[in-house]
Amino acid sequence: MKITVIGTGYVGLVTGTCFAEVGVDVTCIDIDQKKIENLNKGILPIYEPGLEEMVLRNTQKQRLHFSTSLADNIKQAEVAFIAVGTPPDEDGSADLKYVLAVASSIGQYMEKPLVVVTKSTVPVSTAEKVRNAVQAELDKRSAKIDFYVASNPEFLKEGAAIEDFMKPDRIVVGTDRPEAEEIMRKLYKPFLMNGHPIIFMDIPSAEMTKYAANAMLATKISFMNDVANLCEIMGADVNMVRKGIGSDARIGTKFIYPGVGYGGSCFPKDVKALIKTAKEKNYNMRILNAVEEVNDKQKEVLFNKVKIHFKGDIKGKKFALWGLSFKPKTDDMREAPSLVIIEKLLAEGASVIAYDPVAMHEAERMIGKTISYATDMYEALNGADALLIVTEWPEFRVPDFDNITKRLKNKVLFDGRNIFDPQDMKKAGYDYYCIGIKTN
Question: Are 85 and 266 contacting, i.e. CB atoms less than 8 angstroms apart?
Answer without folding.
Answer: no
